[in-house]
Amino acid sequence: MTTEAERAMELATAHASTAGEGLASGPVWQHRDVLDLDDFAREEIVTVLDVADSMREVLDRRIARVPALRGYTVVNLFYEASTRTRASFELAGKVLGADVISISASTSSVQKGESLIDTVRTLRAMRADAIVLRHASAGAAYLAAEHTDASIINAGDGAHAHPTQALLDLYTMRRHFGDLAGKQVVMVGDIAHSRVARSDLWGLTAMGARVVMCGPPTLLPRGFRPGERPAHAESALPPVTIEPNIDRALEGAHVVMALRLQSERQQGGLLPSLHEYAQRFQVTAKRLERAHPDHLLMHPGPKNEGIEIAADMASGGRSIIEEQVTNGVAVRMALLYLLAGYTEPFPAAGDGGA
Amino acid sequence: MATLAIHNARVIDPGLGRDGIADVVIVDGRISRVGPDEGSAVIEADRIDATGLVVAPGFIDLHTHLRQPGFEYKETIATGTAAAAAGGFTTVCAMPNTNPPLDSRAAVESVLREAEASAVVRVLPIGCITRGRAGKELAPAGELVDAGVVALSDDGDAVADPSLMRHALEYSTAFGLPISQHCEDPSLVRDGHMHEGWVATRLGLRGRPASAEETMVARDIALAELAGAHLHIAHVSTAGSVALIRAARERGTHVTAEVTPHHLVLTHEEVAFDGDFGSVHYKTNAKVNPPLREEADVAALREALRDGVIDAIATDHAPHATMDKEIEFDLAAAGISGIETAFGLSMALVHDGVMTLPALLACLTSGPASAWRLDRRAGLDGLGTLAPGGVGDVVLLDPGATWTVDASRFLSMGRNTPLDGRDLRGRVVATVAGGRVVHRLDTVAAL
Q1: What region does A60 belong to: left with phi over 0, alpha with psi -120 to 50, or beta?
Q2: Co-location of A10 and A143 in the same domain
Q3: In the structure, what pLDDT confidence band is assigned to residue A265 with cuts at 50, 70 and 90?
Q4: Are residues A314 and A232 in the same domain?
C-alpha cells in the first residue's frame, strides 16, 4: 500500500517536470483545472476516458477502495444544491483514499458575505489540493482558478458548463459504441439554459459526433445558426444542427438526450405550459421509433418524468440513465487521479493495484 | 495679469473652422488672441512650446460619473476631475446617480460646492428626471435648473413608464433642457449581463438584446415629437438605434446623441476572448451597459459620428473599486473607467480613415457644446471653441504618439478598463483649464 502511495508521488513529480513540454507519446494531459471541455483536445478526452475505464474496474470490485490519492485533499464547495454531483465527487475521492470534505453555501461563511476569491484562498491555505466548485454564476470556476493554484473542477457554473457531466456522457456512449465518430446525438429540451448541453457539445464534436439540438424556439440558444456569428468566429462555437421539429430531429438518432425542463420557464413566459411542452417535445416510445434501432436514451438528471421524458421510458430497455450515474463516479475518479499528477491508467487488479 | 502663451502649435478649432499653425494666448483665464506669432507679441507670459503638437479647445464630456457624494470609495470629485484633466477634458457633466441622487437643489448645490473646493476642471451637474431616480414621480426640474443643472437624466435607470417619460419631456420644454435617456427597456435586459448574441451563448450568460435599446429609442423619439422636447440619447450602441436617430433628425425632431469611445472600437468579443477562441474568460472590466455590441454596430456608429447623426463622443466614465469588479461576472458592477483613455481610443477612427482629426475633435468640443447649447450659458460663452473672450480651456495633443495604457497609473480611482496593457496611438500631453495648466506630461517643454 505504501509503495503505491510513493509511486503516486513519483508519478506526480515526473508529471510536474514534463508538464507544458507536451508528451510526444503516451497519454496526453495538460490541465491543472477542469473548467470546460472547450479547451480539451480529442487526445485529452481519450486520456480521461481510458483512465475512467480502469477506475470503473476498481469501482466494480467487491471492496472498492484503493489508496492512490492518500494525502490528497478534495473540497466540494457547493453554492447550489446538488445531490448526485456532490455525492459522486465524495465517493470518487473516497474510493481513491483522498480526504474529502463538503461545504455548502448555507453552512459556510458565504452567508457572512465572504467573497468567492477569499473562500477559495482560505481553502487552499488549509492545503486543499482540489476544489470542486458548483456555483450559480457562469464563470465562477474561472474566477476561482485565477486566484488559487489548487486545482479547480467546475461542477456546474450557472448556465455555462458542466464538464464532468459531459465526460461521463462521453464515457457512457463510448462504452456502448466504441467510436463516437459519425454518431448522431440529439439533445431535446431547454438547451439555452443548460450547462450540460454546452459542455456536451464541445466534447461530442471533439469526438466526431454529429449533434442536433431540438426544443421550442424560446429555449434554443442564439449564435449557432448560419449568419448568427461572423465568418471569423466560425470556430467559436461547435458545429451543430438546430431542428425544432422533434420528429425530424430524432430521425436515425444513435443517442437521444432529454434535458431537464425547469418549471420556472413557464413563469418566465418562455412556455405557455408544461403540458404543451410535454405534448410537443416529450421523449416518448412512439417518437423514439424514428431513432436508430440501437439508440441509447440518456438524461443528465434529475429528471421530470411525464414532462421531458415519458414515465415508462427512463427505466426502459434503451435507457442507460442509471449507468450514467455509476460512470459519473468513475470519470470523477479519473479526473482527480489525473489532476493529482498521474497520467497512466490505474493498474488493474493483480498488478499490485489492490 | 496671468498670461499663458502656447507657441507654434497646429491649432484646430473645429467650431470656428480654424486649422493652421498659430499661437494661442490666454489672459486671466480667457482666450485673448489666436494667430501666427501672437505669442511673441506678448511681453510677459508663461510659455509652452507646442511645436509638433495640436492645440484644440478643451474637451467636453456630456456623461461622467464622479461618484461623489455617496460612493467616494469609487471616485471623488477631486480624483474624477484630475482624471478628466489627464484625458484632455476641461468640462464634465456629472451624472446624478450619487447618494443622495441629484434630485434636489440641496444635492446639486453640494456637488457644486465640492467642485468649487476640489475640482480641477469645470463640473456641470445633471439633475434627475424622477425623484430618487425611482421612475415614479417627476423630480423638481425648476428647482434643479435654478441650482444649475444643464440636463436631466435618471442615468442607468431608464424612465420605463412611457406616460411619465412623456410628461418629463413636456415639462422640460419650460426650461429648454435636454433629457438624456439611457435607452434599454428594463424588462428586456433583466438578468442580462452582456450583449445578447453568440458570445453570450458561449459564456452561458443571459443577454441584453440590441432591441432592448432600439425599442426605447423609438418610443422616446415618438414621445419627444409629441412633446416638442429635446431628447438626448445617451451612449448609442446599436446600428438599429442609429437608423432611428438618423430618420428622426431628417424629419426635424430635436434629438441629439452621444457615443462612447468603447462602443466605437470594441465588440462583445472583448468580454470573452484574448486573441483566439480556444478558451474563454469572464472579463468584468469589459462589462458595461449598454453592452459592447457587434462589428456591424461599431461600423454603423462610426458612420453616424462621421455623418453628424451622432453629435458627441461622451465617455460614460464609470469608475468602480476592485471589490465591485473582481467578483462573479453576473454580480460585478457594469462600467468602464474611460476618461483617461477616451482620446487615444477614439483616435482609432482617424487612424482607420473614418474621419479627419478636425472632425474627430469636433465631436469632443463644439459637438457636445452645441448639442446641449452649453455655450449659451452664462459665463460659458465660446465653450467648445477658441473664440477670443471665451473660456481659456485648451488641450495639447500628440495625435501620433503611441503609449501603453497602465491602469495602475490612472489618476481615477477606478482601474476598471479593458484596455490595460494595450497600446493606443494619440495622446493628451497637456490640459489647460481657465488658463491654468491642470495636466502636463514631462515631455512638454516650456519656453
Answers
A1: alpha
A2: yes
A3: confident
A4: yes
Quote the CA–CA distance of A318 and A314 in Å, as a whole number.
8
Residue B257: strand pairing partners: B233
The structural domain count of chain A equals 2
Interface test with A, best of B295, B322, B329 (most A CBs within 10 A): B329
Q: Given an 8 Å threshold on Cβ–Cβ distance, is B331 in contact with A137?
A: yes
- Predicted confidence (pLDDT) per residue in A101-113, tens digit: 999 876 555 566 7
ipTM for the predicted complex comes to 0.93
Look at residue A324 and give its three-state secondary structure: helix
Find out whether A117 and B326 touch, Cβ atoms under 8 Å.
yes
- Give the H/E segment covering residue B57: strand B54-57
Chosen for mutation from B270, B283, B323, B328 (greatest number of chain A CBs closer than 10 Å) is: B328
For the four alpha carbons of A191, A195, A199 and A204, in that order, the dihedral sign comes to negative
User: With an 8 Å Cβ cutoff, are A222 and B198 in contact?
Assistant: yes
Q: Check if B316 is active-site.
A: yes
CA distance A336 to A153: 9
**CA dihedral (B41, B46, B51, B53) positive or negative:** negative
What CATH code is carried by the domain that includes residue A333?
A: 3.40.50.1370
Please answer yes or no on whether B197 and A222 come within 8 Å at the CB atom: yes
Residues of A in contact with B203 (CB under 8 A): 138-139, 160
Alpha carbons within 13 angstroms on the beta-carbon side of residue B220 total: 32
**pLDDT, position A49:** 97
SS3 (DSSP) at A276: helix
Task: Indicate the helix (H) or strand (E) that contains A154.
Answer: strand A151-157
Query: Does residue A236 belong to any structural domain of this protein?
Result: yes
User: Active-site residue among B316, B324, B375, B393?
Assistant: B316
Could you read off the pLDDT of A64-123 as tens digits, one per residue?
Answer: 899 999 999 999 999 998 989 999 999 999 999 999 999 987 655 556 678 899 999 999
CATH number for the domain whose boundaries are B57-386: 3.20.20.140
